[in-house]
Amino acid sequence: MRVGLFVTCLVDSMRPRIGFATIKLLEAAGCEVIVPEHQTCCGQPGYNSGDRESAKKLALKFISEFESFEYVVIPSGSCAGMIRVHYPELFGDDPALFARFTALGKRTYELTDFLANIAKLEKAPGNFNGTITYHDSCSGLRELDVYKQPRALLATMPQVALNEMVESTTCCGFGGTFSVKYGEISTRMADNKCQHITDTHADAIVGGDLGCLLNIEGRMRRNGDNTTRVLHVAEVLSGMDKER
Amino acid sequence: MQNNSINFKKQATIKLADVRLQNALSRLQSRFVGGRAAVISEINDFQETRTAAAAVRDMALNDLEHWLLQFEQQATARGAVIHWAENGDDVNRIVAEIAALHGVRTAAKSKSMVSEECGLNDALEKAGVKVMETDLGEYILQLAHEAPSHIVAPVVHKNKEEIADLFADHHHTPRKTGIAELCREAREVLRPVFLNADMGISGGNFMIAETGSVLIVTNEGNGRLVTTLPRVHVAITGIEKVVPTLEDVTTLLRLLPRSATGQSITNYISLLTGTKSSEDHDGPEHFHIILLDNGRSSILGSDMQKMLRCIRCGACMNHCPVYQNIGGHAYGWVYPGPMGSILTPLLGGLEASPDLPNASTLCGACGAVCPVRIPLPDLLRNLREKQMERGMKTRQETFLLKSWAWLALHPKIYSFSTKIGVRLMKMMGGNKKLIHSLPGAPGWTNGRDFPAPSGQTFRELYQQGKHS
Fold first, then answer.
1. ipTM above 0.85?
2. Distance CA B57, CA B206 (A)
3. Considering A32, A48, B19, B173, which has the largest number of Cβ atoms within 10 A of its Cβ?
4. Distance between CA atoms of B233 and B80, rounded to whole angstroms?
């Protein structure tokens, strides 16, 4: 399977290791991974802030770089949701482009969804040893139905024990620009999330979207918790989860 | 009611610090969110029922004038009088005129959010009519001179202790703290109100075009008393609440109580049709139905029309993590939470509520539970687009959004800028790899650190790997 990897702007800048972890996992699942060189951002920040014009331009850039792949895989539910659900909607008034974006959307997957349902990775190569709790990021969960996939993949790792937090599907308060514009509300939502994580006594909080993870880790560290690890599911599954 | 949503941010800050409110809100969540989850499983084809309910609402909205005229004709034929009100002032004037016409001095009122839009109680008091709220929650709020903070559970922001104080003060009785005792005391105060009122005022959950009936969904029994005991009944509702047939409304009734309070069915569903006839034992001699527009017709036929599907169950706010943390008053007008964040700007002007469409993470919880499948996150985003189009965003935000998009469209400059950016951020993070203060983003770092990046971008590391 020939897979185009979209690493996402956040992973590119903030935690590149997640990109390499994703490549490792896709290769372990037997995929040929290609990373288009000029990729940048899917346009979600603008789109969700009302800048539809910019989002359309970035969608056109994206399709010019990724349309040729059999599959497109993204280590983020919100970016994958942008492409699968919102790109076609942006071009609702242009039947030709709408069809192309719909077709591209159908071939575009969030990483764990792809590994579990398409590539059918039987055993994750990681060797994480400890208890984790899983945060279900909103877009992956509600736009792409990503819930069982990461849990199924983590279950292939014998040393991983999953201890579910309450309200794992409640938003952590990130919400892109929301986290800066409405910092106090966002921080309170992150606080609630951190409390639920702490209550599980897990060694690591794991999730599939770096934005949420930065938000959770940011609040956790500010609150003085410097031991609970905050990891992307690709880092755990691939074994690239050691201290930086 | 005065629209104070311009102060959303300030209000939210106050509410986040209000410990009593926070405790009250946590109870709402467990009761309504948990309750709904438990009872929706009673419907085998729940998702299909949502789709059917949305279709019922769309059928009504797509031909609203037709159904409203049919409703008017049927209701009139059964003795009701229909009044059309363009805005809240019209409603207040019409109710005052009806009161004058029938020599009304006291009115007993059951819960109506539409009447809150109009500020009806104050207007009637000015017209010399004594109004008593009889829904327990609304009664408590009337004593406290406060507005509802939730469309189904109006007094959710208050705890039992506060209510006990209010009752002791206003009823001049020994302070009681048991819920049953407090309810009994309220009942003792309210019973004579029902019996003595000249006029009953209610809302209307639905209007049924084929029969000219107003349907109300209640739990306390006060709704049935105020609509049947007094000689005059005035029902006030929005023009969008019409549905074609009784059969259509049954689909909506399968979802409304389950979505609202986690009940399979409410204690009362009252179908109010026409005036008291010679064979009837009870019912009003005069039945007036006031249909309020107040901006709704301007939503009709627009890209926001799906908002008019709303059946006011409150599930969106019960499940909204923003509402759950700040409560309803922060939103500044009658309707809070996700539905209010759309309806308030639509009815009161986007300029008056610049924060509301943005005060959501677009987490999608609201859209996922809406019984009539209103795409609430999409509608919030639509409003953000309108703000952008109309130049209502701050210059700083527009500049940042446009700059980011420009950078992302120019990969080489993007690559260069991010390379420098992550190196700077790495330095700012120091040994602990945490940035405590980010210039330009105090909203983030006032409450959170920012985990510092490792100092090189994925694209440069990937290129290095390819060449080594």
1. yes
2. 11
3. A48
4. 10
Domain presence at residue A48: yes
* CB contact (8 A) between residue B364 and residue A180: no
Of B322, B361, B402, the CB nearest to A138: B361
Q: Which of A47, A220, A74 is nearest to B362 (CA)?
A: A47
Orientation angle between helical segments B46-62 and B64-77, nearest 10 degrees: 80
Instruction: For residue range B321-357, list pLDDT tens digits in order.
Output: 999 999 999 999 999 999 999 999 999 999 999 999 9
- pLDDT class for B397, splitting at 50, 70, 90? very high
pLDDT value for B440: 84
Residues on chain B touching A47 (C-beta within 8 angstroms): 381
Tokens 């792809």 correspond to A114
CA dihedral B264, B268, B274, B279 (to 10 degrees): 120
Establish if A190 touches chain B: CB-CB under 8 angstroms: yes
Q: What distance in Å separates the CA atoms of residue B186 and residue B37, rounded to the nearest whole number?
A: 31
Mean pLDDT calculated for residue range A107-127: 97
Residues B49/B50/B56/B62 CA torsion (nearest 10 deg): -150
Our CA-based measurement puts residue A169 at a distance from the nearest CA of chain B, in whole angstroms, of 9
Q: Which 3 state secondary structure label does DSSP give A174? A: coil
Query: Do A179 and A215 lie in a common domain?
Result: yes
Q: How confident is the model at residue B174 (pLDDT cuts 50, 70, 90)?
A: very high
Phi then psi for residue B179, to 5 deg, are -60, -45
What residues 21-50 of chain A have any CB closer than 8 A to a CB of chain B? 35, 37-41, 43, 45-50
Residue A78 lies in a domain: yes
> Which residue from A52, A54, A142 is facing B364, i.e. has the nearest CB?
A142
A124 within domain boundaries: no
In terms of domains, do A217 and A167 share one? yes
Residue B138, CB-side half-sphere exposure with 13 Å CA sphere: 21
User: What pLDDT score was predicted for residue B246?
Assistant: 98
Final residue of a domain: which of A118, A149, A182?
A: A118
**Residue A56, domain extent:** 2-118
Residue B29 has a pLDDT of 81
Q: Are residues A114 and A134 in the same domain?
A: no
**Do A12 and A109 share a structural domain?**
yes
Q: pLDDT tier at B176 (50, 70, 90 boundaries)?
A: very high
Q: Is B375 on the interface with A (CB under 8 A)?
A: no
If you average pLDDT over residues A15-19, what whole number do you get? Answer: 97
CATH of domain B44-297: 3.40.50.10420
**Same-domain status, A161 and A67:** no
Same domain, A134 and A194: yes
Question: Which amino acid would we find at residue A104?
Answer: L
Number of domains in chain A: 2
Alpha carbon distance A67, A87 (integer Å) = 13
CB contact under 8 A, B13 and A184: yes
Residues A39 and A70 in one domain: yes
- CATH code: domain of residue A228: 3.40.50.11810
Nearest by CB to A218, from B321, B408, B450: name it.
B450
pLDDT band at B439 (very low <50, low <70, confident <90, very high): confident
What's the mean pLDDT in B72-100? 98
Tell me the C-alpha distance between B156 and B97, whole Å: 34
The ranges assigned to domains in chain B are: 44-297, 395-467
Residue B404 forms contact with A (CB below 8 Å): yes
Candidates A35, A176, A182; nearest CB to B359? A182
Chain B: residue whose CA lies nearest to A54: B405
Question: Which residue on chain A is closest to B8 by alpha carbon?
Answer: A182
User: Do the domain assignments include residue A190?
Assistant: yes
Give the tens place of pLDDT for each residue, B92-148.
999 999 999 999 999 999 999 999 999 999 999 999 999 999 999 999 999 999 999
